[in-house]
Design a protein that fits this description.
About 20% of the residues lie in helices and about 30% in strands. The protein is α/β, with parallel strands linked by helices. It binds NADP nicotinamide-adenine-dinucleotide phosphate. The site of NADP nicotinamide-adenine-dinucleotide phosphate has 27 residues, from strand 1, strand 4, helix 2 and helix 4.
Length: about 200
């Protein structure tokens, strides 16, 4: 069975957006979190148009290549302009987790309103043995609470944003992590953790 992981670009003070993210505004005033996707000279083999530094391309493509399906929170879906009716990943089906109907979803997108377990189960099935990627701080936190996350990746960008949406929200108990790899790269440090069980 595939794994479940989240990989987010995050500031040193723990934000995955700047202030006032939203539809049409993307990451708000935190757009520099994504600069390293485009500041290099090594094209991604998975995402068209991404040009990363060589060390970032190795890390980024390794994770991107593992993904068979995505579970994104409703905020990520809305703030990303509903991914234009498609998916944030070129080869992975999108599952949107929400408490509310989303009549505008296309046939390439699936809404799940019955909780994180169901969303991850549906994504696992669609992933066909590949991994499930989680998008959004709320979704990652829900999945951690349910004990469903295998790995957490911080693409840590050297900035203190001072505000925005946090990667991790409140948890009822500690979650211990084991550092698998730390890769310094231009404009970002890639921190790959496994969740200890
Ligand atoms: N820096 C990065 O790499 C990166 C990556 C991904 C996303 N982002 C950004 O992060 C922001 C979103 O993060 P976020 O933490 O605010 O939100 P999120 O995790 O994307 O979405 C949270 C929403 O998902 C729904 N949800 C969560 N758990 C649920 C459950 N158990 N059952 C049903 N629905 C559930 C709820 O929606 P409703 O109650 O409204 O239905 C909740 O408000 C966006 O701006 C996005 O662009 C950044």
């Amino acid at each position: 069975m595939g794994k479940v992981f989240s990989a987010h670009a995050v500031s040193v003070d723990g934000y995955i957006t700047g202030r006032e993210p939203g539809a049409g505004r993307g990451l708000g005033d935190g757009t520099m979190l994504f600069d390293w996707y485009f500041d290099g000279d090594t094209p991604s083999q998975v995402f068209d148009g991404f040009k990363l530094s060589a060390p970032s391309a190795r890390v980024f493509d390794a994770f991107a290549g593992r993904v068979g399906a995505i579970v994104a929170g409703r905020n990520t879906y809305e703030d990303s302009d509903r991914f234009g009716g498609g998916s944030p990943h070129p080869a992975a089906r999108l599952f949107v987790l929400s408490h509310r109907p989303a009549p505008e979803l296309t046939e390439r997108q699936t809404l799940v309103t019955t909780g994180i377990q169901d969303a991850i189960a549906a994504a696992r099935e669609a992933a066909g043995g590949k991994d499930v990627g989680l998008m959004g701080g709320g979704v990652v936190t829900e999945a951690l609470k349910a004990g469903l996350v295998d790995e957490v990746v911080l693409h840590q960008v050297p900035v203190l944003l001072g505000g925005g949406r946090p990667f991790f929200q409140a948890l009822p108990e500690h979650v211990r992590l084991r550092l698998v790899e730390a890769v310094p790269a231009p404009g970002v440090t890639h921190l790959h953790y496994e969740v200890e069980r």
